[in-house]
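User: Can you predict the 3D structure for this chain?
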Amino acid sequence: MNEPSRTVEKIVKLFPRERFSYDPFKILICTILSQRTRDENTESACEKLFARYKDAFDLAKAAPSDLYELIRESGMYRQKAQRIVEVAKILVEKYSGKVPDKLEELLKLPGVGRKTANIVLYQGFGQPAIAVDTHVHRISNRLGLVRTKKPEETEEQLRKLIPKHLWGPMNGSMVEFGRKICLPVRPRCENCPLNGECKYFLQKGR
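Assistant: Here is the predicted structure, written as structure tokens:
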């Protein structure tokens, strides 16, 4: 096992995060709602939304304005409501109400980029997929696993370096690691179990 693999394996073991759902549709919609907002806001909005609408068929019949109060706390609620209803209609019309399990099909849906698509593939379908968000991109570069400027480049490099069984869990674990230890500003390096192999920490100590 190479050094990046060992480092990621440690993060996954030390900062575990379970798959929060096995329903591809709920995962897709909640991931869309999670854009540019905090987890607790997303969770509350998802709970309210799915208490009213159970599946794509229900949401496809809704007007975006019907969703505003339900998802308001997720931020950008008008844009997200429009997107969610549009996605639901496409799923009903083209996929019989089911979420596709192929990356290229997911990327055709409005508001779905590679991060969202990869989260759906892993969380919803159990497929090996690397979801690179701001945490994964920042931490991978800070640790010295990769040297990239864009999340897409980070995903490409990590796919080459990390074994497939770590791809899916890596995102959730790096998110937890990034919140508790490897903060964007003033990371808690002295308390980090990875500081002995972190490029940022080792260079800082010189």
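The domain at 24-125 is CATH 1.10.340.30 (Endonuclease III; domain 1). The chain has two domains: 3-17+130-204, 24-125.
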